[in-house]
Amino acid sequence: MRLSTYLQGVHAQAIELALSLHSEEVTLEHLVCALLSDEESAICELIEHAFADPETLYEDALALTPGILIVGSGATRPFSVRAVEAARRAVELARTAGLASVTPACLLRAAMEELTPEALQALKEAGCDGEAASLSGEKGTLPEAAHLFHPFGDEARRALTSASRQAPKTSRRAISPADLIVGALSEDAELARSFGTSASGASALLRPFSEDKTPPPARAISNDAALTKVFSALSEESGSLDLLRLVLRDSEAELAQVFLRQKVTPALLERSINTFVDP
């Protein structure tokens, strides 16, 4: 792989991002997000020159990135390691209970299992009881699916969306098990009554324990075909703006549109290619 020292470092960050998003491969979108996270990159300097916001472009690019995420109108949020484990456990609980789909109660019970002892103690002292959450609902055979959230019912999916709104309130990028509990309670009033507190009450109780810093498991992960093709077109002298030129070449592609919507155009790039440089 013939890359500049700078792009090699960005590629390493893209790998970390792909792992944190539970992705199967590293993609061009992961690489662009890594570049947009570096405010000293030539791409970010060009974006600011165009009076655009790198953080906005990051959110738009992240929404296109393969991984386990909630894509919303306000923000795109990935799931923390323990939150993903909770989602998988919720599927298991629904299947064991003979339910046709995952319910908010399944999600709450599973998320409780992923909380720290301190967080569980705070809930217990407030009179909250996860075991009181009844795993009731329409009976049936839970569908086998490639995507983690396909077996989730409508209420449980709305709970995931509600959970995703909790992370920005504390400047966290990832949805945690605590967020899943708040999301589940916000979508099921009966569940909140049996649990012992409302969504807002749980949010206050769990706020000190809301962040999940568990690192993703180490595993080998390779570039996808599209990223490999892009790398083959770059030389050791290429920087982030050379990569952006390749992105913008296909103006109809979704990733190119992320930049074009913010007036970061091929014409602007060519006028500025020698003005901004990577660290």
Low-confidence stretches: none
Fraction of helical residues: 40-55%
- SSE succession: HHHHEEHHHHHHHHHHH
Radius of gyration over all CA atoms, rounded: 21 Å
What is the global morphology? elongated
Beta-strand portion reads under 5%
Count of alpha and pi helical runs: 15
Give a written overview of the molecule.
Strands 1-2 form a two-stranded antiparallel ribbon. A hairpin with a 4-residue loop joins β1 and β2. It has 15 helices and two strands. The mean pLDDT is 94. α5 packs across α6 and α9 packs antiparallel against α11. It has 279 residues and is mostly helical. The longest helix has 16 residues, at 5-20.
Question: Would you spell out the secondary-structure blueprint of this structure?
Answer:
Layout: H1 5-20, H2 28-36, H3 42-49, H4 54-63, E1 69-71, E2 76-78, H5 81-96, H6 104-113, H7 117-125, H8 154-164, H9 177-187, H10 189-195, H11 199-206, H12 225-232, H13 240-249, H14 254-260, H15 266-272
Antiparallel strand pairs: 1-2
Helix pairs in contact: 1-2, 2-4, 5-6, 6-9, 8-9, 9-10, 9-11
Q: Could you give a short description of this structure?
A:
The protein is mainly alpha-helical and 279 residues long.
Q: Which features characterize this protein?
A:
15 helices; mainly alpha; 279 residues; two-stranded antiparallel sheet
